[in-house]
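Listing S7. Sequence submitted for prediction.
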Amino acid sequence: MAELTTKIGGLTLKNPVMTASGTFGYGTEYADFMDIACLGGIVVKGTTIEPREGNPYPRMAETASGMLNAVGLQNKGADYFIQNTYPAIKDIDTHMIVNVSGSSVDTYVECAEKMASLERIPAIELNISCPNVKQGGMAFGVSCSGAAEVVRAVRRVYPKTLIVKLSPNVTDITEIARAVEAEGADAVSLINTLLGIAIDVEKRTPVLSTVTGGLSGPCIKPVALRMVWQTCRTVKIPVIGMGGIAGWKDAVEFMLAGATAVQIGTFNFIDPAVSVKVIRGLDDYCNRHGFRSVNELTGALHI
């Protein structure tokens, strides 16, 4: 068998397969379908310092080979997470990573500080790329100055592994990646959802209450792959690739493009055990092609 362990900042992952925030709950919701402890990591639902109700319904729409969502970071807030959710997930034998978002630099910092106090949360994923909230979110992730400002502030108070999730809704994602690397990010994850719209032709109205929403699923994979490939050629920190992964071949593509690890998102809704199948598929691929370690796949694309 191939060696599947890989490193992201201060984390040693059992394997490079993680689940993406907002698609896997807090992990426990999927325990009936698979052994969640076999995952390299679980990125839990987006967390903000204050409770959020999210956007009005309807806030999800199916599209060709994908879906639009405008959930809007609905969650019960950082204090509720610490008091109620953390005790239920802290002993799961994998890396539990909290996706942190905010409406201002101060709220990002406050939430990150609270997560830093939790012994069994070894990393956060700083979400500067959510397109479904009116304040914060993607507003910080679409300019180098905005991205740098929030990462710089969080880095001052957060000593553990800091992953920054990047938006594809920019002219050049590599510039944003360079900016957050310079401010101390240990890794970047990309891509978040693409901004899209769906229209009800009979009513002649938008399907989503927010008009626009985030597009995810297999339809975005070519764009995600291109952005991961570009970013991996630009920064020295690890890149976590995501966007339309539906099976092991997709994961191999992201790693060949330069990703150190991957996250599986939308396809969790279709096949709750897809991540386990991807782990097995990566192992089989390495064995068939003579790779002793999965890390040998990273950047092994012949051009």
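Caption to Listing S7: primary sequence and predicted structure tokens for the chain studied. The mean pLDDT is 95. The chain is about 30% helix and 20% strand.
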